[in-house]
Amino acid sequence: MDNHPRSSSVITAILTLAAALCLILSFSSNAEPKALVLKPFKQLSQESAECAGCHKDKNPSIYAQWGRSKHYGANVGCYECHQANPEDKDAITHEGHTISVIVSPTDCANCHTQEVDEFAKSHHAKAGQIIGSLDNFLAEVVEGALTFNGQSPAAVNGCWQCHGSEVKVLENGDLDPTTWPNTGIGRINPDGSVGACTACHQRHEFSMVQARRPEACGKCHLGPDHPQKEVYEESKHGINFYANVDRMNLDSAKWIVGEDYDAAPTCATCHMSATRELPVTHDVGNRISWTLRPAISEKIDAKAKAQGKEVKSWEARRDDMKNVCESCHTKSMIDNFYQQFDSLVVLYNDKFARPGKDLMDVLKSEKMLTETGFDEEIEWTWFYLWHHEGRRARHGAAMQAPDYVQWHGMYEVAERFYIELVPQFLEVVEKAEHKGNTEGAEKARAVLAEILDRPEHAWFSGNEPEEVKKARKEAQAAFKARYLSESK
């Protein structure tokens, strides 16, 4: 080793510098975040520079969020998104500029043409059509009252915040507070466009990380009637995501499953994001094969085909979803999963949904129910069966959450059908008969008798074959014996 004094001093200096760097790094991890430093306004358009100069002080959080966005990096400022034509319905004059408060998909399409085109084809884009639907009737009339400028606060604050409102402009140019603020996914905008990109891409940062996490979808896809977020959290996919979120590489530009991450999928992974073979899509139904929303599930293309439209087939959509699955699973596992999933949907449809609808239809056709919705107990019972329990069971099977299939799903469907719907049906028929509608009562009872005579309902009607009863009793006895022996 060289013992020259200069070498010794150099080594000492290097060690001192290294120690100082380590000390600095150790403090920096716990240091207070630095103030946001943005590029000079001269790199922005003159209009956006004026906007930023004012909103920096008036709305510092919005200014900071924009400063972290890709828009900022591309010199896209306030004016580039909010500029408007004077003839636009929602155009206002603000600080000498013509702008609109709402940035609609039409505005976003100036740069994001493909994304907007794909979104416009999606079921998300149609979500605002809830207005006038059965769900909206509940919020407007049954739950609410038209006490907020002619609208129901229950609909304004509830349904419309997910589905989207029809944004209206008042005579003085202000946005109607019954319809704005609103970031519902199917919002109907004053410029005629549908949708709100900010439903998923939270303004003004538009973070990829935020949009890719399941919480982004959980604003709307949760709760008793469509608990996709809770279902996801129960599944192995959700468990792995939350356990390994630090390995998800959520800020990757391309974010291809199997390349950029392999710990778990999120909602975006399966329904939107790229694989090694598939591009990103903003049509969230592009890989869905069943529709699990209505009382009776159909293949996703059934309605369009019935209307004579040419659309992507359910088989092609399923093939694309399988492509996502193949990033982590073998073909045999995927195929078997889909057989399990399909069998649950078919069971729900054939055992409970179609029979339930047949029972409700005969009551209506024979004039045993009023024309007013939800004024009779059996209407609530039927709604719970398909809209809540039935959806939970189907979504649970689709996303591998067994508790939602069983105890939050099919168990409650069965209880609702046998213990509530059937007795209430007979009560309605009996009342109609007492009022003189004997012919209608006879038709209604015949429908129920035919349903309960089917093999899947034999346990309830008491018509099970003796060998079936015997086999079940033997299985129950074996279980009790095994349970008692294990508990000793």
How does this structure look, described?
- It is built from 22 helices and 4 strands.
- It has 488 residues and is mainly α.
- The chain has a two-stranded antiparallel ribbon with strand order 1-2. The protein has a two-stranded antiparallel ribbon with strand order 3-4.
- The radius of gyration is 30 Å and the shape is globular.
- Mean pLDDT is 92; it is low at 1-35.
- This is Hydroxylamine oxidoreductase.
Using brief descriptors, characterize the structure shown.
disordered N terminus, Multihaem_cyt_sf, two-stranded antiparallel sheet, 4 strands, about 500 residues, 22 helices, Cyt_c-552/4, Hydroxylamine Oxidoreductase, Chain A, domain 2, signal, Multiheme_Cytochr_ET, single chain, about 55% helix
Largest sheet: 2 strands, antiparallel
* Strand arrangement across the biggest beta sheet: 1-2
In terms of per-residue confidence, which ranges show pLDDT below 50 for 5 or more consecutive residues?
Answer: 1-35
The helix/strand series, from N terminus to C terminus, equals HHHHHEEHHHHHHHHHEEHHHHHHHH
Q: Please, how many domains? A: 4
Strand-residue proportion: under 5%
Helix content: 40-55%
Number of strands: 4
Shape: globular
Structural class: mainly alpha
Average pLDDT taken over every residue: 92
Q: Radius of gyration from the CA trace?
A: 30 Å
| Distance between the first and last residues' Cα | 75 Å
User: Counting H and I runs of at least 4 residues, what is the number of helices?
Assistant: 22
